Amino acid sequence: MADLTVEISGVQFRNPVFVASGTFGYGLKLKDTLPVGSLGAIVTKGLTIRPKEGNPPQRLIETPCGLINSIGLENIGIKEFIKAKLPELKKLSTKIIVNISGDSERDYFEAVEIADSTDGIDIIELNVSCPNVEKGGMEFGRNPKMLEKLVRGVRERTRKPLWVKITPNFVDIVEEAQAAVSGGADAITAINTLLGMHVDVENKKFTIPRKFGGFSGPAIRPVALYIVWKLVQSVDVPVVAIGGIDSLNAALQFFFVGASAVQIGTANFIDPRTPFKIIEELGEYLEINGHEKISEIIGVLN
Amino acid sequence: MIFFETGTVLKRETFDSDKLLIKVESDQIWQKARPGQFVEIRVNSRLDPLLRRPFSIAFTDESSIWLLIQIKGKGSKIIANSSQLEIMGPLGNGFPELENVSLVGGGSGIAPLIFYYKTYPDRVKRVYFGFKTKPNFNLYKLIPQKKLVLVTEDGSTEFRGLVTQFIECKNDVHLVCGPTPMMKALNKLISSDKLYFSLESYMGCGVGICMGCAVRKGDGNGYYRVCTEGPVFRADKILL
Ligand SMILES: Cc1cc2nc3c(=O)[nH]c(=O)nc-3n(C[C@H](O)[C@H](O)[C@H](O)COP(=O)(O)OP(=O)(O)OC[C@H]3O[C@@H](n4cnc5c(N)ncnc54)[C@H](O)[C@@H]3O)c2cc1C
Ligand SMILES: Cc1cc2nc3c(=O)[nH]c(=O)nc-3n(C[C@H](O)[C@H](O)[C@H](O)COP(=O)(O)O)c2cc1C
Ligand code: FES
Asked: Is A130 a catalytic residue?
């Protein structure tokens, strides 16, 4: 068997295929159906210091090869997550990455302090790019100076590996990534959803009550691939890729341009077996092509 | 446990001008399914349409499940014409297993109620089904005439009007699936602790991992997920 293990920010993963935040619940829903422990890592739904009820429906609308969502960060809050979900998650032989969001620096800091002092949380992924809440993460993604300050503040509050998740909705993404790295990020996750909109022509209204939402799925893959390639060239920390990955072929594209790992998002909705299939096929691909380790194919194109 | 199956479509019967009943081969789902549960069907192996489509299980046979498919848009049209279907299920919670209930269904919403009747014929007092016009399909093959009240808006059956006009025992428990206006009308007619609604909502995953299928909780605080906490809810637990 080829060696699929990767190390990112000092953490060893059994393989480089993770499930993306908000697209696999808290990781436990499908534990009787799928071998969730065999994932490289589970990234939790975006957690906030206080529970959030989310946006009114309609929260989703499909577009050609894509999906627009307006979930609005519905989540049980980080404290409840730690009480009700983490004990069960800890028993799995996979890494647990908590994705944290907030409305203000203080919200982020409080949630991070809690995550920092909790066993079983391997990595903190800061979401500074959610388009679906009023204030929220996106403000930080809009302003590299604010982002750097936020990340620095978070960095002071945790010794756990810190990843920052960004998206190209407002500012030059390279600038955004550099700000996060200057603030102390150990890795960059890219991309979060793009801004998108859909109109219900029959009823002459916006399909989603908040008018716009986060656009994801295979339709955004070329955008994500370009950005991951660009970030790999321009920042000194590992880049974890997300965006429309639904198959081995799509995952390989990201590994070739230098992604250290991939996260599977919207594809889990089409078929929740997708990440497990990719893990299996990645192993086969390496064997067939005479590679002993996944690292041999990471960044072969630049 | 959720099963992933690829089943051949074994039979296709016209129901009415925009619906058909299809019988699909099944390995496990047919054995595990409860009335009120649904399946998610992959439209095709391409990425457009992207999402699976949810359909209630209309009833089961040995090694097969039946679905009642209403042609709405491109997804249901492709599914209705496919010779093989990729199916995930059974999903959601079914109807509660209660005695002495009446069933109220409208349009394609009759599907999960047929399943309830076929599973617990002795527990069902009356079945009220409403359509615009009389279906081509002979429903009496599934539910005996003495129990089935077939209501049509155009009067092409014995009972003309809306199902809500024909409800006899307002104190009985009613299990309901149909269009929202029908559920709203029943909410006014029958005490909400005696009403169970099977809801539809736009679904992303069907398995509880996207938070897309939200329905407002009855007390106004927060949302339930229709796919995993429903699709069946007691009427006082949700806001329509
Ligand atoms: C739990 C549940 C059980 C259902 N059972 C049945 C059934 O037994 N028989 C039946 O005919 N229909 C049933 N439906 C409705 C059926 O899923 C939709 O009619 C179908 O998805 C429409 O797809 P389309 O591509 O043909 O239509 P589109 O042209 O895509 O859209 C038409 C309408 O269908 C709805 N729709 C589209 N995509 C989805 C989706 N991913 N999830 C939910 N709704 C969607 C939207 O409200 C939209 O306005 C059920 C829905 C749910 C949630
Ligand atoms: C329904 C839904 C919910 C999401 N929720 C979150 C979230 O809570 N936190 C976050 O950082 N990203 C969230 N995302 C973004 C995804 O993690 C991912 O970055 C994005 O969807 C692009 O990847 P994809 O095309 O593979 O889906 C969400 C995406 C979707 C579709
Ligand atoms: S459809 Fe995804 S949570 Fe219900």
From this structure: yes
Instruction: To the nearest 10°, report the CA torsion of B179, B181, B183, B188.
Output: -170
Which amino acid is located at A132 in the chain?
N
The residue segments making up the domain with residue B12 are 3-91
Q: Which residues contact A155 (CB under 8 A, 6 or more apart)?
A: A162, A183, A184, A185
With contacts defined as CB-CB under 8 Å, which chain A residues touch B203? 60
What is the tally of structural domains in chain A? 1
Could you tell me if residue A1 is inside a domain?
A: no
Within a domain: B54: yes
Let me know: does B105 contact B194? Beta carbons within 8 Å.
no
What atom in ligand 1 is closest to the CA of residue B75?
A: 25
Note whether residue B66 is domain-resident: yes
- Look at A59 and B212 and tell me if their CB atoms are within 8 Å: yes
Distance CA B174, CA B169 (A): 9
Radius of gyration of chain A (CA): 18
Q: What is the mean pLDDT of residues B28-42?
A: 97
Q: Which amino acid is at A300?
A: V
Whether residue A25 lies within 8 A of chain B, CB to CB, comes out as yes
Average pLDDT, chain B: 96
DSSP B239: -
Helix intervals (H) in chain B: 29-32, 74-80, 111-119, 180-189, 226-229
Please check whether residues B56 and B133 belong to one and the same domain: no
Say what the pLDDT of residue A135 is: 60
Shared domain for B142 and B54, answered yes or no, is no
Place of tokens 């051949």: B8
Q: What is the pLDDT of residue A134?
A: 61
Q: Look up the CATH number of the domain holding residue B15.
A: 2.40.30.10
* B83 band by pLDDT with thresholds 50, 70 and 90: very high
Evaluate the CA torsion angle A8, A13, A19, A25 in order and state its sign. Answer: negative
Return the pLDDT at A1.
82
Show the low-confidence residues of chain A (pLDDT under 70): 131-138
Pair (B53, B127) in one structural domain: no
- Rounded CA-CA distance B159/A202 in Å is 33
What type of residue is B11?
K
Residue B82 lies in a domain: yes
